[in-house]
Design goal:
Elements: H1 5-17, E1 19-21, H2 22-29, H3 33-45, E2 49-52, E3 55-58, H4 68-72, H5 76-88, E4 95-97, H6 102-110, E5 117-121, H7 124-130, E6 136-140, E7 144-146, E8 151-153, H8 155-162, E9 166-171, E10 175-177, E11 181-184, H9 190-199, E12 200-207, E13 218-221, E14 228-231, H10 237-245, E15 249-252, E16 258-260
Helix pairs in contact: 1-3, 2-3, 5-6, 6-7, 8-9
């Protein structure tokens, strides 16, 4: 897989911005738009980005992919710390739900440290990441294949989830707004995510700081369905007060897992 320094920089820019237009990339790097389109075509052919509605954005990568660490870029350290804290919340005998996303995939890979955990997922990427772990029970929701998210959705997945009771649902949203709630860029997955919320005793958001003050795709749920947020964002006092009113616990990493219990 050949990537030049410039395409690596574009890939990192898309990861930090979540998505960007050709003009935005062109302006940021001082490149002509024809060059940007050529680079984006190469990245798309390598299945590293997707292009929709005039925008380019990162696609989820398999954990065995060479591009996976590049995909996280400079956010690798806070991402690892978010996942490290999330791992501490999982205990023997629990049933956890992991829909596909960057941080939930990292969490799935970290479950090698755990035993006697049941992992429910609609993500084929996560399913493949954990299926070889003999200490885990892996449960697929089934459903209709969605190539955009490499996941299973639809009525079959939702019915399966209705008959399940899980201890924790870990979600990495595409965007979080204090007013609007949290959103997901893939509209096809939203009904499945809502079914996951209904079946879980605890909903935990895993979110890097760039996810906040953004809206993407469609609204999944208001923030008042969330029990805890684990993030590298340094919340303002006003944000902490808003979250406290909704009885949401926040954990900000790094800095010794600063925890605000509300």
């Amino acid at each position: 897989m050949v990537r030049t320094k410039r395409t690596k920089e574009i890939l990192h820019f898309l990861d930090t911005q979540h998505s960007a237009s050709v003009k935005e990339i062109s302006d940021h790097f001082g490149l002509n738009e024809a060059t940007v389109r050529r680079d984006l075509r190469q990245l798309q052919l390598q299945n590293l980005i997707k292009r929709e509605y005039g925008k380019a954005s990162i696609v989820e990568k398999r954990p065995d992919s060479e591009a996976f660490e590049s995909y996280l870029g400079d956010a690798a350290e806070p991402a690892a710390q978010i996942v490290s804290h999330a791992l501490k919340l999982i205990h023997t005998g629990q049933v956890i739900i992991l829909p596909g996303a960057q941080l939930t995939l990292l969490l799935a890979r970290s479950l090698v440290e755990k035993s006697h955990i049941s992992v429910v997922t609609n993500s084929l990427t996560i399913f493949n990441a954990v299926k070889g772990n003999q200490n885990l029970r892996v449960i697929s929701t089934g459903g209709i294949y969605d190539p955009l998210g490499n996941s299973m959705n639809g009525a079959i997945a939702e019915t399966m989830l209705q008959n399940l009771r899980a201890d924790i649902l870990f979600i990495e949203p595409s965007g979080i707004s204090m007013q609007e709630g949290f959103t997901h860029e893939n509209l096809a997955q939203i009904p499945t995510l809502n079914a996951m919320i209904r079946t879980a005793r605890q909903v935990i958001l895993l979110a890097r700081s760039r996810t906040f003050d953004k809206q993407a795709g469609g609204i999944v749920a208001p923030l008042n369905v969330v029990h805890k947020i684990v993030t590298d964002r340094a919340f303002s006092e006003r944000e902490l007060a808003t979250l406290a009113e909704m009885n949401i616990e926040t954990v900000s990493v790094p800095s010794e897992d600063r925890t605000h219990t509300t």
